[in-house]
Amino acid sequence: MIKTAAGRYAEALIDIASEHDNLDVQGEELARVNRILAADGGVLRVFQHPKLDLKVKEALLLKILEPYHFSLITTNFSRLLLAKKRLNLISDIKLKYDEFADKRQGRTRAWLTVAVPLPKEMKNRLVNKLKRVINLDIRMETKVDPRIIGGCIIRIGDTIIDGSVKKRLEMLRRELIN
Predict the structure, then answer these.
(1) How does the average pLDDT of the chain come out, rounded?
(2) Residue 155 phi, psi dihedral angles, 5° rounding
(3) pLDDT by residue (tens digit) across 66-82?
(4) Based on the number of CB atoms within 10 Å of its own CB, is 30 exposed (0-12), middle (13-18) or buried (19 or more)?
(5) Neighbour-count burial of 122, counting CB atoms closer than 10 A to its CB (0-12 exposed, 13-18 middle, 19+ buried)
(6) What CATH fold (topology level) applies to the domain 5-102?
(7) E strand or H helix at 144, and its extent?
(8) Cα atoms in the 13 Å half-sphere on the side-chain side of 84
(9) CB neighbours of 138 closer than 8 A, spacing ≥ 6?
């Protein structure tokens, strides 16, 4: 299997996080760094500016991350990415990190799209049913999209279960046309 640069960095961070037994904490910190740097696209462009000295860039990065009190691992990892001119890969590294962490912990990620926010108890029931069906621990990420009208869409890996009202109405329309 050919690994991308993002995959190699994610795997290295996973190894370090595993040694410290904090895969999930490290993943959350990486996600926060990603959100901070992605919040303003101009920040990443500043770090890529060829005329700025590395020491200036590093001081700026540390100043940006300082209020969040990240672990030494996260801070040093961010500094490494900056030094290696890979800070622009932070989003891809985060995605790969999540994928590797899930695999190591015997779980899978699922994405749930609903028309209106679900009560926590209903979401938990749905997660528990899915766990029994696929026999894996599930991390569910929820997105609200009123365009589906009602019902839900669940994506686990390459499998999509579309139980949305929008999909049912489209199927009914096709039947009526035929």
Answers:
(1) 92
(2) -125, 125
(3) 999 999 999 999 999 99
(4) buried
(5) exposed
(6) Peroxidase; domain 1 (1.10.520)
(7) strand 137-144
(8) 14
(9) 107, 108, 109, 110, 127, 130, 131, 156
One-letter amino acid for residue 22 of the chain: N
Among 96, 130, 118, which Cα is nearest to 13's?
Answer: 96
SS3 165: helix
Residue type, 30: L
Helix (H, G, I), strand (E, B) or coil at 156: strand
By the 10 Å C-beta count (0-12 exposed, 13-18 middle, 19+ buried), 78 is classed as buried
The pair of structure tokens assigned to 44 is 């990443």
* Dihedrals phi, psi of 120, to nearest 5 degrees: -55, -40
The DSSP code sequence of 7-55 is: HHHHHHHHHHHHHTT-HHHHHHHHHHHHHHHHHSHHHHHHHH-TTS-HH
0.90 exceeded by pTM: no
Q: Reduced to 3 states, what is the DSSP secondary structure of residue 147?
A: helix
Six-digit token pair at 140?
């569910």
